Each structure stands twice: as structure tokens, then as C-alpha cells.
Amino acid sequence: MSLTDWRRMEAVLSAAFALCFLVTTGVHGDSLTILQSPEFVSFQKGDWAISGEKIPDLVALTMGFSVQEDLSWPGLQAGPLFQRPRANVLVVVRGVDSLALPQSVASYPLENPVPFTLDSVAETIHSLFAEDTPVVLQLAPSEERLYMLGKANAVFEDLPVTLQQIRARLSQDGSVLASLPLNSLSRNAEADLLFLSEVQVLHDITALLQRHRHLAKDHSPDLYSLELSGLEELSRLYGQDSPQYRDATAILASVLQKFGEDVYGLYGNSAVVEVVTVKTFEAPLTRKSRSILESQQISNPGSPYNLAYKYNFQYAVIFNIVLWLMIALALAVIVVAYNLWNMDPGYDSIIYRMTNQKIRMD
Which residues belong to any copy of the Renin receptor N-terminal domain (predicted)? Predict the structure, then answer.
């Protein structure tokens, strides 16, 4: 063989080894990982990609709620009708496409990673379980964004939210700084403190849930949505090949694994924990803060003509129930009236029959 043939063979073998490495390591870019899931919520293992905008629908379906459009995604199978998880915890990690989470139920590629929120799921929980005051917690420490509803207002009122509060929490007793192997991470750098503050928030959430275990025993489902962007800041400042980024990735993977196990155990093995890893979102998310509980002065504040809201997706179900119930009652009234009109009192009625017999005896 000539030198040219040897070089061609070497190039082919190198390409084959690279392809095998990609297949065996499962490199798919951004991903959705199901960290914990009860037995009655069935996730199938496979490489079915799911769009980022469908994540709220997936969360709603895992909790037993209906969605406006059917989710044609084979990763989630239909489960029992009368069993639903007690909680759903979604953690969004920005700045990394995947994390080494060894003990997970399933992992799927994430395509079209657009920003999303779980506001629709939170509104559904509030409308269906308003009397039970479920826990709804949506938190993004980097943006100092916090949204709490129901019992979360009382349980997580002491949770540090702003970066100043979280940094003060890092210097108190029970801080994660005493137990984490920081290695190349610094306690004085701003980006490092942002990452450590997010780890501290995860630790404080599980600590508060352990203190208030009664939350996991009620009949209303709970919703947790956490967005972490500390890795994104570390990647922007140090680079993905830096020791700080590698150490932070390893720390976050172990912390998320323990966080999922703790929440899953606190809810009696009846909680779904998902982790969405995305390197960067394709479009910025503009979010307007509001409260579901605030009273509205007009029926539709977005319309200057005081128009009513459009019917939601539950209108068809309610309409069919009312329509067919009215038709059944109307038919029942017609049948009863017809039988009464054509009834022979002397033959069909026991009252008139006994009266006629008494008259004849007299």
C-alpha cells in the first residue's frame, strides 16, 4: 500500500472512532432529563426530541391536567386516570448543554430552545385547587425574580431572593460553603458567588420542605420552577475549558442529583423532577410580573371596550355536559307527560282501581 492509501485509511478510522464516541456518549446538545418520576408516570427511553415551547404542556400532562393541543411526543405514555404526582419540580440550567446525571429515568434531546414559563400550569393549579392553597414557587435568583402562591407565601417567606440576601446567607451557619469542594472557585469573585448562591437556594428549599413536611401530605399538587444561570456567567467570564467551569459543572450535577432525591423522598416517591439544560436561549424572554389573586376592575383589561374573555379550551367540555343533560331531561319530561296523558285511570292506576272495586261492593 502506498502512503496515500495509508493516510486515507487513517482518516476513515479517525472519523469512525469519532462517530462511535458521539453515539456512545450520547452527545445531543441541549437536553431534557427526567431525574425522578413515580411508577405511574411512564417515561419511555429513546432519542425523541422535544421542543422547548412544549415543556409547559409536558409538565401539565405529567400532573394530570389537560392542554390546548395534543402533545404528539412518544416519550410520555398515558398513565392511570385517578393517580397524579403530588409535585412537579422543573430546574432550568443555562450555560451548559448537558450534565453528568448518572441516576436519571430518561434523557431526551431538546430542540428549538426558546424561553418558556410555567404560568399556564400555575394558573390551572390555582383555579382547580384554590381552596387547598397549593404551593407554587417560581424562582430565578440571577434575575431576582420570585413568584409565590398559596402556602408558599408562608413557608418560603424567609427564603433569600435577592443576590444581596443570598450572599449574606452564604456567610451564615449551615452554608453550603462549608460542605462543597470549591477547588478553583473563589468566594470573592462575583460570578462564582452567583453560582454558589444558586446552590444555596437549592439547599434552603429542601431544608424548608423538611421542616414543613405537611405540605407533601395534602391533596393539592405543588409546582416548583427554578432557573439557574450561574454556569452561564462562569462560561462567559472564564470559558468552558477553564477549571472554574469544570468544577462548577461537577458540583451542580451532584447537587441536582441530591436535590432530586430529597424532593422525591419528601413527597413520598410521588414527584416528578425534570432538569432542562440549555446552553443559550434563542430569543430573550420578556416577562411582566403580575398576581393571579389581584381583582380585575373590568372583565378584560387588555380591551378598551370592556369585552369579555374568550372561551378557553374547557368550554367545549362544559358545553357538551350542559347540552346533553338538558336534552336528556327534556326527553324524560316528554315521555312522562305522554304516559300520563294516555293513562287509563281505571286500568293503570291502583288508586282508581281500588275505588272502583269499593263502589261495586257497596
Answer: 30-279
